[in-house]
Amino acid sequence: MSEAVETARLMDAVYRYQRHFYDFTRKYYLLGRDHLIRELQPPENGHVLELGCGTGRNLIAAAKRYPGVRFYGLDISSHMLDTASRNIAKAGLSERITLIQGDAANPAATEPLDVPEFDCVFYSYTLSMIPIWREALAAGAERLKKNGRIHVVDFGQQAGLPGWFAKLLFSWLKSFHVTPRADLQSELRQLADKTEAELDFRHLYRGYADYAELRKL
Predict the structure, then answer these.
(1) How confident is the model over 1-34, as pLDDT tens digits?
(2) Are 80 and 10 in contact (CB under 8 A)?
(3) Cβ-contact 211, 152 below 8 angstroms
(4) Cα dihedral 2, 116, 71, 140 in deg (nearest 10)
């Protein structure tokens, strides 16, 4: 069995029931998502891809903020995509948001969308759940057009917060198969150097979350 198939089965198992109350609970601790959406700033008539779109929450918020832009979401979990599709239809945005099932680490996964390059590719609390997250970042970079940007927000290392809080948080996240990436900044730096891109990396909320932008030159 391939790693992608194993990951799909795991994510479906994790979110089979959680998806029904995911957005209600996650708004209290997935901090920085709206910050990322504000920073997207895609061009008019642009194309924006979210890798690991989950319930569609971010796509809906971004589509409302940028009405002249087309959005696309990829997720490996069929259960999450079912929920996302319903949420997007309820928001009246089905004509501007397209969903597809696939592996974020596979650059060819978005080929059925018939969009050769994207203005922005973003990851919102996704890389901490993808086993081959480095490959997922590299795949996103391959999908960028010239001057395109990758945006990332995810759990940080809690450096500015009490040690007991970090220990408790990491233990709790582990039960959901979530692993904050301690070397996210160094991996993004290597990717920026490899792709001749500029990197802006910031710690948010005393290190609770990390936010990054990689601009392809």
Answers:
(1) 455 545 445 444 444 544 444 444 455 468 999 9
(2) no
(3) yes
(4) 50
For 33, 90, 134, 162, the CA distances from 38, given in Å and listed in that order, are 9, 23, 25, 29
Phi and psi of 118, rounded to 5°?
A: -120, 150
Q: Which amino acid is at 203?
A: H
Closest by CA position to 125, among listed 64, 160, 75, 91 = 75
3-class SS of residue 14: helix
Q: Hunting for tokens 């290597």 — which residue is that?
A: 190
pLDDT tens column, 72-95? 999 999 999 999 999 999 999 999
Sign, CA dihedral 24-76-198-202, equals positive
